[in-house]
Amino acid sequence: MKNTNKAATKDMTGGSPMRLILGFSVPLLFGFLFQQFYNLVDTIIVGRLLGKYALAGVGSTGSINFMILGFCMGVCSGYAIPVSQMFGSGDYARMRKFVTHSIILCSGFAVIVTLLSSVFCRQILTAMRTPEEVMEFAYSYILIIFLGIPVTCMYNLLSGILRALGDSRHPVQFLVISSFVNIGLDFFFILGLKTGVSGAALATVISQVVSAALSLVYIARRVEILHLSREDWRIDPFFFGILNKMGLPMGLQYSITAIGSVILQSAINGQGADAVAAVAAAVRVSAFFCCPFDAMGATMATYGGQNVGAKRLNRLGEGLRDCTLLGVIYSIAAFVILYFFGRSIIGLFVSGAETAVLDQARLFLLVNSAFYIPLALVNIIRFLIQGMGFSLFAVLAGVCEMIARSLSALLLVPLIGFMGIALASPLAWILADAFLIPAFLHVRAVLVKRLRVREEESRRAAEEAAAAETAAAAVPSGLKPAHAGVH
Fold it and tell me: Which of 59, 76, 312, 424 could form a Cys-Cys staple with 156, CB 3.0–4.6 A?
């Protein structure tokens, strides 16, 4: 067996769950914060220097961006689950087979999704009722983002594999570096070359190239457990089947959830450019404040995968309890901050003269942050269930969110206007939790039952072997069959 390079991995199957969750999620949190920080810089530069319509154009692509890229990132996250389970069980040979097969599958998906999304980009924006005055801004931005899908997939797959081994620190370091690259390129393209929203998109894609390249170089040089041989690349349909069983449901979960967001975005677009700009700015701020929930979710996926692989099922509930406590404490703190300072933060994106945009954005932030506790539960439980190997339940949770957002767009927005937009996500989180909480109890019971059956089978096999050995020992030596050397 090769050296597992423990400095680059972390075993989450023993020790205090709270300490492990904090130790793993804090580096992830800094990574997500930096990622959102350069997204905020993009939005501030676009809103302040290019104007309200450019901001609305970039913001109007958020839901379709989430639907397409979310599918790719979800698939990559799903592919990392068997890797974490094999790492938890100590089966490094099968773990490397999962890594190679995930690379092959991810490459194929990236090419197909890039082609389809790029070709039908304008048609999608038109179908979403993107306002005419922001259409060209939206198209110029999202087309470049779609063309960068292959590098987005590459980074997310490599960082997912590293996190599956318990290494949350290095993916964050690479993300921080790429964040500064992105910010520098924003100023270079938008302020220096006057490339408009296309420059913001190009800066994002180039920064992802940097983070993907750094991840690849690090794995090649430092993570010996992931050094792949020719045998690891030998195709086996079994591994493709397991990976797709995990990855496709997670990708579909993001896409199905995003369908509701696309329908909601159409309703937002129908409210005019002010509403589109307000939601664009508020979503950026909210995404920044929601980074801890993203970090908790990614942590619980690895925690669940490793502990299921190690058959430490009693630790699943302990981890859920500790992580939920962290989520509740942070949710309360975030609401307090946004209640008192939300409008000032929104003021970074738009001019103070745009009072309608500021008022609507603050309302959106307050309503959403009041329901951050349900959002924390969605991330924690959904990703824990995925790490446990039940990705289909994530799809069903995504269906719940899609239904809630779609109904909000179709029923609430016509009745109560912008408040219906603000309530859409909180209603989606509550409905998803109503499904996920009993789902977790169910899948944990299924795993416990499976483990007991296997233990019982092992016990019976051991008893039968011991009985046979005892019976053989009881037979007089003269009556035992002779083993002739020549037949």
Answer: 76
Q: Which residue has the higher pLDDT, 471 or 450?
A: 450
Q: For the ranges 187-201, 359-373, 462-476, which has the lowest average pLDDT?
A: 462-476
Where are the alpha helices (H) located in 235-272, listed in sequence order? 237-269
Encode pLDDT of 103-137 as tens digits.
Answer: 999 999 899 999 999 999 889 888 877 878 888 88
Tally of residues, the chain: 487
477 CB burial (10 A radius; 0-12, 13-18, 19+): exposed
In order, the DSSP letters of 232-243 are GGS--HHHHHHH
Half-sphere exposure (CA, 13 Å, Cβ side) for 365?
A: 32
Contacts of 239 (CB under 8 A, 6+ apart): 97, 98, 101
List the end-to-end C-alpha distance of the chain, in Å, as a whole number. Answer: 41
**418-474 and 391-407 helices, crossing angle to 10°:** 170
CA 236/CA 419 separation, integer angstroms: 52
What stretches of 270-313 show up as alpha helix (H) in DSSP?
273-289, 291-309
Q: Which two tokens stand for residue 87?
A: 């790492």
Please give the backbone phi and psi of residue 16, each rounded to the nearest 5 degrees, phi first. Answer: -65, 120
Express the helix, strand and coil content of the chain in percent, nearest 5 each: 85, 0, 15
Q: CB of 211 within 8 A of CB of 175?
A: yes
Tell me the CB-side half-sphere exposure of residue 416, using CA atoms within 13 A: 10
Number of helical H runs and strand E runs in the chain: 18, 0
- Give the pLDDT of residue 480: 55
The span from the CA of 282 to the CA of 11, in Å, is 38
Phi, psi of 283 (to 5 degrees): -65, -40
Token readout for 23 is: 């130790």
Average pLDDT over residues 279-290: 87
Average pLDDT over the chain reads 86
What percent of the chain shows pLDDT beyond 90?
Answer: 38
Give the closest residue to 200 by CA, choosing from 388, 385, 379, 58.
58
Position of tokens 């058959």?
311
